[in-house]
Design goal:
CATH class of one domain: Alpha Beta
Structural class: alpha+beta
Helix content: 25-40%
Strand content: 25-35%
Number of helices: 12
Number of strands: 22
Largest sheet: 4 strands, parallel
Distance between the termini: 54 Å
CATH architecture of one domain: 3-Layer(aba) Sandwich
Shape: globular
């Protein structure tokens, strides 16, 4: 039985999907997670305990655990796990992204620098320390601009500013996020800086693919039909195939392949985000990992003999060195909505789920928020209320299905009062 290491956070949605894929493929799935090493297997998954902020010790823990029985491949879920996976792959002599490339992909600032060196189109940018004032950077600013954390994911902390006052407000808001206890416990020096860059206009897309010895294989391109113009950039709907001419898709894939090479990425999954406008394709990021959360359920693949293969099925095969020739995305269009959080409050419940599931084309409505959970919208938040999945003959029909299903949902919140000063 082949053995694949899955490096992930203990709270990741996607791990369960990999368990199913491993069972179907007859693969022994081994976990490495940021679980508490002081407790005796609290998640009952026999995971190797690692710390994403301590690369050397975590690599040693995995290498020591692999001495009894060798690993045949590695998959990582998330940016920080992807960096650790690259280091482990190098230590064990397995194929994967080089560590320096995974590290660059996980940092928006390093990514921008690599893109500039490779001659890719990049907006103006600079980084500033958390305690910098407007006066210290005023001569470098132009508007509109966007302030971003260097390492947080999911558009958390990303804020557009159109004026100096909006810039000061955006920086203060992002500073509060980066000084919050959940970010501080990450022990990542990248969270001590802020990236400032010019706003790039255009329609936004995502590309899901794998690199095979440096060559990009495109698995899917998603369009994002809702405008992402700020002041916050909450992603809601991913839909594929995109309503974009084939020439445009080829140009996008070529630019993203160039960007992946500029980062030094070589072998493994990638998830890229880009904007396409009058000035061409601007690559925002190329992450050294697959699409996150439950969104991968929007993708299904087929071969000549098999139907309904998941992204996780493909990534396990890729990790084991199997060629992906002959695999293609299903013919049907699909869409997923990451259900946005409309306001701050404790989640109290939802009505209309059964009605939403009856919408033509809707396959599932999953509410992942827990009753009593404090929900925060962007830019402070970093989760969703749940997911809606739909399939249809054409992309607009799939998009309309998730929109209609969402319209039928009524989420209830208890007001979350702010704590008094000093409490």
């Amino acid at each position: 039985m082949s053995r694949v290491l899955l490096i992930t956070a203990t709270t990741g949605y996607q791990a369960r999907a990999f368990e199913g894929a491993a069972a179907r493929a007859g693969v022994d799935l081994v976990y490495a997670t940021d679980r508490c090493k002081g407790l005796d297997d609290p998640w009952r998954d026999h995971a190797i305990p690692v710390r994403f902020h301590d690369g050397p010790a975590s690599v040693k823990a995995v290498v020591d655990a692999a001495r009894g029985r060798a690993l045949d491949g590695i998959v990582a879920l998330g940016d920080r796990p992807a960096v650790l996976a690259a280091r482990v792959a190098q230590a064990l002599g397995l194929k994967g992204h080089p560590p320096h490339a995974a590290e660059a992909a996980a940092s928006k600032l390093l990514t921008r620098g690599r893109f500039v060196a490779a001659g890719l189109p990049v907006p103006w940018f600079f980084s500033m320390p958390l305690d910098a004032s407007l006066d210290e950077v005023a001569d470098r600013l132009a508007f509109p601009c966007v302030v971003k954390p260097l390492a947080l994911a999911g558009s958390r902390g990303v804020i557009r500013a159109d004026t100096p006052d909006e810039f000061v407000s955006a920086v203060a808001r992002l500073r509060a996020i980066l000084l919050g206890p959940d970010v501080r416990t990450m022990k990542d020096a990248a969270n001590d800086e802020i990236l400032v860059e010019g706003y790039v206009a255009g329609a936004e897309y995502a590309l899901e693919g794998v690199l095979e010895d440096g060559a990009l294989r495109v698995l899917a391109i998603f369009e994002k039909p809702d405008p992402l113009e700020g002041p916050f950039f909450e992603e809601t709907i991913y839909a594929t195939p995109p309503r974009l001419a084939h020439d445009g898709q080829r140009a996008m894939a070529g630019t993203i392949a160039h960007a992946a090479a500029a980062l030094g990425l070589r072998h493994g999954p990638i998830h890229a985000e880009c904007r396409v406008g009058e000035n061409g394709v601007f690559v925002l990021e190329v992450a050294a990992r697959p699409i996150g959360g439950l969104c991968a359920r929007a993708l299904r693949f087929v071969t000549k003999d098999r139907q309904g293969l998941s992204l996780e099925d493909l990534l396990l095969r890729h990790a084991l060195g199997e060629p992906l020739d002959g695999y293609g995305r299903e013919r049907a269009a699909s869409a997923v909505m990451m259900i946005p959080i409309p306001r701050r409050g404790h989640f109290h419940g939802v009505d209309g789920v059964d009605d939403a599931r009856r919408v033509t084309g809707v396959e599932e409505v999953l509410v992942t928020a827990k009753v009593g959970q404090l929900m925060l919208p962007l830019p402070e938040g970093h989760s969703y209320l749940g997911f809606i999945f739909a399939r249809a003959e054409h992309t607009p029909e799939a998009i309309n299905a998730v929109r209609e299903a969402h319209r039928r949902l009524d989420f209830r919140f208890d007001v979350a009062l702010p704590l008094a000063p000093g409490r």
